[in-house]
């Protein structure tokens, strides 16, 4: 018998959504079996469901307001370019004289604020979340631990006398390399502690924190400014500086920003730096710019609002937030020095729900292939955007999978058969265990992904010259110029 009353259909579906028992399940199946494709389609059903007054889209509306507010409060916009831009700074003092320094201006192709803004705004940056292999390698090569444990007298003042007139606290080996063997090194005397009769050479070479890798460089103030770094005028050497404290903005945790020689490995992440778990939450409402925000809002208003009216804000929030967090985990593992946001993966979770709904309703859709084409065209489009700088395609695909899994667990009108409750409980447990194990594996067990060249080539495809170039300066052994 074909149902002729739309109100009756809505009542049947409402009873099932609010209480998915065996009896309501049977009524729901009976409703689906007797719907005429001429008069009813899955789209019609979802339209009717959207008219049910039980749930209002509180979460969707609040999220859009938060997205737009955060975007509007950002100060300034970076250059809307796809490729990095070389910036030349003239007359920069170094140990070997006055030179021209070339630095890279990092663009934001999504018409948004400078990329470094996202670190202050709470985006996910791997160096603030866990120890990184690259930083361990850098500090091991610098040998700071050995110097601290032996005696700080291994440091001395390295001077380049007139006409260069530059000095900096270094080890003997650093002084020899950085001055090409012509510097004068005095053991056991820090440049800042020189007596007044012996401080004629200007102490201009000091620690600088530049980049998001947490590494420190011994350079001049002008050189540090050219790299958009933080110059530590109160310190003598990099062993006194924790650059991750600058990167992750942890100044509020300590009143004393200066770490004196003799402290235990101050250049490595402290206990507050290793696990800034709150970044996984603070990054969820962030977007990279106006273009990114506009695309995501369009998808959310067309898909997520209707879904929230049907299943409630609490279920939508579970899907969105869980997809966003797991997506952030994957993205920060593949690109540890790029600030990642969670909005793309959260929207991907909603699209994952739409994929499951499509297959659930396949048998009584009027044009299932056309609906599938539109949905997978959207997936392909967002995945293509993920091959550009900042947006992570891995984060989007991960959110898609997590959203599909959670749809099977929390969406009430996704049915499995007679033993609904038992099967749903088992599926919920299995899905929860799978997601937790996957997160643990990504966070602590797979450090090799940090140096995966293939992964990086997928995350950012160089469509033109200069795209996807390494943008953060890394302090390695050798000249600090």
Automatic annotation (TrEMBL):
Ranges for domain Peptidase S54 rhomboid: 274-411
One Gene Ontology cellular component annotation held by this UniProt entry: endoplasmic reticulum membrane
Membrane spanning stretches: 55-77, 312-331, 337-360, 372-391, 397-415, 427-446
InterPro entries: Inactive_Rhomboid, Peptidase_S54_rhomboid_dom, Rhomboid-like_sf
UniProtKB keywords: Endoplasmic reticulum, Membrane, Transmembrane, Transmembrane helix
Family: Belongs to the peptidase S54 family.
Record-given protein name: Peptidase S54 rhomboid domain-containing protein
Species, as recorded: Candidula unifasciata
Higher taxonomy: Eukaryota, Metazoa, Spiralia, Lophotrochozoa, Mollusca
């Amino acid at each position: 018998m074909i149902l002729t009353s739309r109100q009756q259909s809505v009542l049947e579906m409402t009873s099932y959504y609010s209480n998915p028992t065996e009896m309501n399940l049977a009524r729901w199946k009976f409703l689906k079996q007797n719907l005429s494709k001429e008069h009813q389609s899955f789209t019609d059903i979802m339209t009717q469901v959207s008219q049910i007054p039980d749930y209002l889209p509180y979460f969707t509306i609040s999220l859009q307001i938060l997205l737009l507010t955060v975007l509007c409060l950002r100060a300034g916009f970076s250059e809307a370019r796809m490729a990095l831009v070389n910036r030349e700074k003239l007359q920069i003092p170094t140990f070997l004289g006055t030179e021209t320094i070339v630095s890279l201006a990092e663009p934001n192709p999504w018409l948004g604020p400078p990329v470094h803004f996202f670190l202050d705004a709470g985006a996910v940056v791997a160096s603030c979340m866990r120890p990184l292999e690259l930083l361990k390698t850098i500090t091991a090569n610098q040998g700071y631990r050995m110097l601290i444990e032996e005696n700080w007298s291994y440091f001395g003042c390295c001077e380049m006398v007139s006409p260069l007139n530059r000095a900096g606290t270094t080890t003997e080996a650093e002084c020899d390399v950085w001055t090409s063997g012509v510097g004068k090194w005095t053991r056991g005397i820090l440049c800042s502690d020189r007596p007044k009769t012996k401080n004629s050479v200007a102490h201009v070479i000091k620690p600088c924190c530049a980049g998001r890798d947490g590494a420190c460089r011994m350079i001049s103030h002008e050189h540090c400014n050219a790299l958009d770094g933080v110059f530590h005028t109160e310190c003598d050497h990099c062993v006194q500086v924790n650059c991750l404290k600058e990167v992750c903005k942890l100044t509020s945790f300590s009143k004393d920003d200066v770490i004196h020689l003799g402290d235990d490995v101050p250049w490595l992440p402290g206990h507050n730096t290793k696990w800034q778990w709150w970044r996984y939450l603070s990054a969820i409402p962030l977007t990279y710019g106006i273009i990114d925000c506009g695309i995501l809002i369009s998808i959310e208003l067309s898909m997520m609002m209707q879904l929230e009216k049907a299943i409630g804000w609490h279920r939508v929030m579970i899907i969105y937030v869980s997809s966003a967090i797991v997506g952030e985990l994957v993205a920060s593992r593949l690109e540890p020095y790029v600030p990642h946001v969670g909005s793309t993966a959260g929207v991907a979770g909603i699209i994952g729900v739409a994929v499951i709904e499509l297959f659930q309703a396949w048998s009584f859709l009027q044009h299932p292939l056309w609906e599938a084409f539109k949905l997978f065209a959207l997936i392909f489009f967002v995945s293509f955007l993920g091959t550009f700088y900042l947006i992570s395609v891995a984060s989007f695909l991960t959110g898609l999978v997590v959203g599909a899994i959670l749809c099977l667990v929390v969406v009430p009108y996704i049915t499995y058969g007679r033993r609904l409750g038992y099967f749903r409980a088992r599926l919920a447990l299995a899905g929860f265990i799978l997601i937790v194990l996957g997160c643990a594996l990504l966070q602590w067990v797979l450090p090799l992904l940090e140096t995966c060249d293939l992964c990086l080539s997928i995350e950012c495809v160089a469509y033109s010259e200069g795209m996807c170039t390494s943008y953060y300066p890394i302090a390695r052994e050798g000249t600090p110029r």
